[in-house]
Amino acid sequence: MTSDEIRKIFSPDLFRFLIFSYPLGKQIVINRKSFLAVSSQKVNSYFYLKYVFFRADQIIKKAGKILFGLKKNDNYSSLFRQLIASKEIKKKCHPFSPSEALLGRIVFESYERILSAAASQDPSLILSAMKMVARVFHSFYQNNRILDLSPKKKGKEKIANWNGLLLILNIRELFLFLAELLGFNHFASPDIV
């Protein structure tokens, strides 16, 4: 199977993801049957990483609406950066719970893996870091309420877990940065593969 044949099957982002999934120096044997079987698993990983990004993005947008009255298409990133830099946030945060500490540690370790990837020029290490963050994020998200969207009075929604919100903001920004670094042009586009 030639790279041109593969490009006809997969979008540029998926093709790039598939190639970057293999460790640097590993020979990629492209036999049609085995490649399609292995690549379907890797394609699922790509969509899982996109899912994690959009789940984090959705939480941040809902928090932006609660905190700042923002609409879906407003630019909320700069407002959150201002909030993080403010002294106000220190009053709202608490010592990390075990699940918050685990997620924070995994995010921190992912930065170390990114530095390793840069030193070895191996993009598969970046994808590995993203997958590790995604697995821990998914568990964290399932077990921790970040936003309280069901108050007794409409308009009284609030942030239930400030530490979790800040961790999720960090994950969203990390995934967006890494997708750009790897050249995934449509990672942040929900309708484009």
Explain how this protein is built.
This protein is an all-alpha fold and 193 residues long. The protein has a single domain, classed as Isoleucyl-tRNA Synthetase, Domain 1. The protein has eight helices and two strands; from the N terminus they run αααααααββα. The chain has a two-stranded antiparallel sheet with strand order 1-2. α6 packs parallel to α8 and α7 packs antiparallel against α8. It is elongated, with a radius of gyration of 19 Å. The two termini are 22 Å apart. The relative contact order is 0.15.
Number of helical regions = 8
Instruction: Write down the overall mean pLDDT.
Output: 81
Count of DSSP strands: 2
Helix content: 55-70%
Basic shape: elongated
| CATH C-level name | Mainly Alpha
Straight-line N-to-C gap: 22 Å
CATH fold naming: Isoleucyl-tRNA Synthetase, Domain 1
Quick structural overview:
The chain has 193 residues and is mainly alpha-helical. It has helices at residues 3-9, 12-21, 32-68, 77-85, 88-92, 98-120, 123-143, 162-181, and strands at residues 147-148, 158-159. It has a single domain (3-181), classed as Isoleucyl-tRNA Synthetase, Domain 1.
Element layout with pairings:
Elements: H1 3-9, H2 12-21, H3 32-68, H4 77-85, H5 88-92, H6 98-120, H7 123-143, E1 147-148, E2 158-159, H8 162-181
Helix pairs in contact: 2-3, 3-7, 3-8, 6-7, 6-8, 7-8
